[in-house]
Amino acid sequence: MKRLDAVQSKLSFPLFPNLDFHLSLPLLLPFQDSSFALRRPQSSHTAVLKTNLAATTVFTMQFKPILTSLVVMGSVVCTALGISPSQHLSHSDHHHPSLHRRDIPNPPPPSEHGTLTFTLTANVTRVLINNPPINLLTTELISDLYTFLLWTQPAPNKTTPKVVIFSSAIPAFFISHMDLRNLNGSAAGVTAINQLIACGRLLQSVTTTAFIAQINGRTFGGGMELSSQMDMRFAGPDALVAQYENSNGFVAQAGGQLSLGPIMGKARALEHLLASRTIDAVTGTRLGLFNNHYDTAEALEREVDDLAARIGLYPQTSLNDTKFSLAFLSPTPEMLDAQVERFSPIAGGEVSQGLLTRTLEASDESDNAFERGIPNSIVEALYGEVLDTLGEDERARVLGAVEQEVDLS
């Protein structure tokens, strides 16, 4: 039985004009294996559904598939199988993997650069992000995330987590923006962008695992893009998120911009993207960006753990089909490809490169007031001369650091 490690195709197009580098984007292809009985017909949403077929299921439903739906009947199932109600299905009963206690999955590949720490149970894998000082999306963190997400892809005879929770070891930051030095067209930068885009696609195409973002800190730029492509997002009291790329003269290229429309609605997404505004936990919940928000970090972690444990109780086949059924709400690969192609000339243009240079001059991308104040700090650094022509009240209104909390009563 052949394995599905990473079936890939390459699409290449120029990343920056006048620079001899190309973006080679790995795309998941449908996995063909006769032992996989769960298949889906094609539909008008063929592009995204074809991509999701790469992660259709890790279970072969070739022996009495109706058994799973009968499990709720308890004793009826036991009678049909000739098992007394007091007995449990053993691990050796491989025909019914969703009905017995699962083994803990084999651990993911070690975090080569030490930016991720894993905690595994039978159903839930926790990923602790730790790339001091601000969880900047450096080439090292992106590489570790990419390697981990490749590991979540299902394959025959492979146990994958039902739920993955991402959280941060750095209280003030969940995942920060991409290292802006990677936007200079260098070979290392091209690789980092390539892998960041691939991370977003893996988050959307792996349908056998639910990905949850446990956010209690700042999440900007590329970090926001990854978060918005996870299946669920829960916020703590210190959560602040922003897709700030417009203030730097370029766009979110890794799928986040396209994902915000279905999550927040077109008008709200445009308001957030075009104004480069920061959203707090309460407002993000009202907009549908966060599933919920909590008053303390402890409450946030407890509620996320409880939800993950509950999801982990259920068969992975139903989890897979539920995610697969809602895949039409995600941007298609063609839409994502077109976004990346448009990004290349914008980010490589004179205007954007000039703004990026000035942003890097204002911050060394460490834990400083500038990084904690993004995107307003970028607005002030790049457009201060214009802001200085405004009156004090008008300037304060234009900056409007955080979208104000709204009474939900």
Mean pLDDT: 77
Please state the overall shape, judged from the principal axes of the Cα atoms.
globular
- Tell me the Rg in angstroms: 23 Å
The tally of strands reads 12
Helix content: 25-40%
Distance between the termini: 56 Å
Q: Which runs of at least 5 residues are low in confidence (pLDDT < 50)? A: 1-99, 401-409
Class of secondary structure makeup: alpha/beta
The secondary-structure element order is EEHHHEEHEEHEEHEEHHEHEHHHHHHH
Q: What proportion of the residues form beta strands (DSSP E)?
A: 5-15%
Strand order in space, largest sheet: 3-4-5-7-9-12
Quaternary structure: single chain
Main pleated sheet: 6 strands, mixed
Number of helices: 16
Summarize the structure in words:
The chain is α/β, with parallel strands linked by helices. It has 16 helices and 12 strands. The strands form 3 sheets. The chain has a 6-stranded mixed β-sheet, sandwiched between helices. Strands 6-8-10-11 form a 4-stranded mixed β-sheet. It has a two-stranded antiparallel sheet with strand order 1-2. The longest helix is centred in the middle third of the chain and has 19 residues. The termini are far apart. The N terminus and C terminus are likely disordered.
Q: Which key phrases capture this entry?
A:
409 residues; alpha/beta; 6-stranded mixed beta sheet; globular; disordered N terminus
